């Protein structure tokens, strides 16, 4: 992390209340980031079959595979670059790269162009979402970290839900292209303009925390990036448990994103009903994080992560036990609730363990594994769906999610300060 003049740091205060204006702005910016993903969740799998005539589920889910691989790597570089050159530059770069995505989807003459657009979207999401997470952790300091992450993730996934519902409505009223993706152009422009002209750098806040708060971990001066990668991925048992939970969480999200619309359509649901089911999951996910993040500041991280993975698995299993719309709505609700318990809590736990001088890099490594789950989920779910059917692919994903919860329960230590 670049050194900061002492005079500049003396005026910096940590905490949600002291930084409410900039924190609130970053909440809106992250909502724009979430909206960019939401424009695809209802429409794109249906577009593959209707406009491009693709029958293979593996081929259809290739857009999620490209998104997941690129986003995972972008997360890794976003964290490291944020430590080296600052948060704001990374954020603005991410928006510039994401700006052409909806335009490419509107005019794409072949499915290969959709895959390319999702590679760009992966870079946009990796750079922008990672950076807004890191900046909020910087601003609030060690207190109320779970609450801050809950607000951040709630804004992002409520926007995913709103965009999924909105694009489903536009697709029903007009067509699959171009109307639903015009929303994406507006979102990208709003995110870029606000990031350039309104967002301020937060690296100084991390420097203040490094001087005043310590969690027992060594500072960055003693750790190479390779060491941080190994520590976050495997060597520290709590960070390993966190990283694998994030990976399996997004593995089931990748399956839900790619297969659920096709599964619902196979059972005769209209695009409007598919849009409703596609919106329930991220809506509950978004709203639930507001309470889950704050709750983790009181009861600890481990119980919520364990419970969240088990609840997700239960929600997924409901989809293969029946073909009733309302039971599926309940399954979507449980999947969203379980994810809400997990998502902000995992990020807060990373902030608990990692030293502030290399925290951004640790967040990047964690998000490498977490969003790598999209690619693994797309490949696994698509292959199983082609070989055995969509129902088997959904069931296998639920089983892996349950296994991940068991790993957290048996391996992870509590990370919340005061409860370790």
- Considering the protein shown, what is the CATH homologous superfamily? MFS general substrate transporter like domains
Terminal Cα span: 28 Å
Poorly predicted regions are none
Overall SS class: mainly alpha
- The average pLDDT value, as a whole number, equals 88
How many strands in all? 0
Shape: globular
CATH class: Mainly Alpha
- Total number of domains: 1
- The proportion of residues forming helix, as a percent range, comes to over 70%
What radius of gyration results from the CA coordinates? 20 Å
Order of helices and strands: HHHHHHHHHHHHHHHHHH
Protein model, in words:
With 420 residues, the chain is mostly helical. The chain has a single domain, classed as Growth Hormone, Chain: A. The protein has 18 helices and no strands. Helix 17 packs antiparallel against helix 18 (390-411). The longest helix has 30 residues, at 111-140. It is globular. The model has no long low-confidence stretch (mean pLDDT 88). This is Major facilitator superfamily MFS_1. The chain crosses the membrane at residues 20-39, 59-78, 90-108, 114-134, 155-175, 181-199, 262-284, 304-321, 327-351, 400-416. It is found in: Cell membrane. Keywords: Cell membrane, Membrane, Transmembrane, Transmembrane helix, Transport. One of its GO terms (cellular component) is plasma membrane.
Provide a quick synopsis of the model.
The chain is mainly alpha-helical.
Which features characterize this protein?
18 helices, 0% strand, Growth Hormone, Chain: A, 420 residues, mainly alpha
């Amino acid at each position: 992390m670049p050194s900061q003049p002492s005079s500049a740091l003396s005026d910096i205060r940590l905490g949600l209340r002291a930084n409410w204006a900039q924190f609130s702005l970053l909440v809106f910016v992250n909502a724009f980031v979430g909206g960019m993903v939401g424009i695809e969740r209802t429409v794109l799998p249906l577009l593959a079959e209707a406009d491009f005539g693709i029958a293979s589920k593996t081929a259809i889910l290739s857009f999620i595979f490209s998104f997941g691989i690129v986003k995972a790597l972008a997360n890794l570089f976003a964290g490291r670059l944020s430590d080296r050159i600052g948060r704001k530059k990374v954020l603005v770069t991410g928006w510039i790269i994401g700006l052409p995505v909806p335009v490419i989807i509107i005019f794409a003459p072949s499915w290969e162009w959709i895959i390319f657009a999702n590679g760009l979207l992966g870079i946009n999401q990796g750079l922008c979402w990672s950076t807004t997470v890191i900046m909020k952790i910087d601003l609030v300091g060690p207190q109320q970290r779970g609450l801050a992450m809950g607000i951040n993730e709630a804004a992002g996934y409520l926007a995913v839900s709103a965009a999924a519902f909105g694009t489903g409505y536009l697709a029903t009223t007009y067509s699959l292209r171009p109307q639903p993706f015009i929303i994406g152009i507006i979102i990208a422009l709003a995110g870029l303009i606000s990031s350039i002209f309104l967002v301020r750098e937060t690296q100084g806040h991390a420097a203040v925390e490094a001087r005043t708060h310590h969690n027992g971990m060594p500072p960055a001066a003693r750790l190479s990036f390779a060491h941080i990668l190994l520590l976050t991925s495997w060597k520290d048992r709590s960070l390993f448990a966190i990283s694998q939970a994030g990976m399996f969480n997004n593995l089931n999200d990748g399956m839900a994103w790619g297969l659920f619309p096709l599964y619902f359509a196979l059972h005769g649901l209209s695009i409007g009903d598919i849009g409703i089911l596609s919106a329930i999951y991220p809506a509950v996910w978004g709203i639930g994080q507001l309470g889950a993040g704050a709750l983790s500041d009181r009861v600890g991280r481990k119980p919520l992560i364990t419970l969240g993975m088990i609840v997700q698995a239960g929600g997924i299993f409901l989809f293969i036990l029946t073909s009733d719309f309302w039971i599926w709505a309940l399954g979507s609700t449980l999947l969203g609730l379980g994810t809400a318990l997990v998502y902000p809590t995992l990020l807060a736990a990373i902030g608990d363990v990692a030293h502030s001088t290399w925290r951004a890099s640790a967040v990047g490594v964690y998000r490498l594994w977490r969003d790598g789950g999209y690619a693994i989920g797309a490949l696994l779910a698509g292959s199983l769906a082609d070989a055995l059917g969509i129902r088997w692919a959904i069931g296998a994903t639920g089983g892996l999610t349950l296994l991940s919860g068991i790993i957290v329960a048996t391996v992870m230590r509590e990370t919340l300060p005061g409860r370790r």
